[in-house]
Amino acid sequence: MGYSVPRNKELMRVFKDLEMVEYLGSGVPRILRKYPRSVFIFTPNFIRIIFLFEKSLDDSQTTLTDQATMQATMQAEKILQFCLEPRSRDEIQSFLGLKNRDYFRKEILNPLIKEGKLSPTIPDKPSSPKQRYIAISENKGNE
Q: Does 108 have pLDDT greater than 80?
């Protein structure tokens, strides 16, 4: 139901000071109202939540680009699993709950293609409406 017993009282105090929770242990419903479910990454041993901020929390070098790059890195594994069969850009964006096409292309799609982890199905026509993307098997060269 989105309620928890805080295990780290100090962290919950910080969330309360940032007005991310009304009272200790109630932040999940508010997170779900503000962010898509794709910010949650579940693994067998932990749950990771990645928050993107509209502006830097301070004047240091923390920027939206840094945060977006970190989220793109965390979402790469989800995308590669989803793209075991060819998927369109729209399908992948929808799967991640992302709306900004430019951000998705620059920060997520293009880096995966450059790293050789994702491949366009029509490489000669990158802007084709029939373009799909498929994950590249890591042991493809070993087969």
A: yes
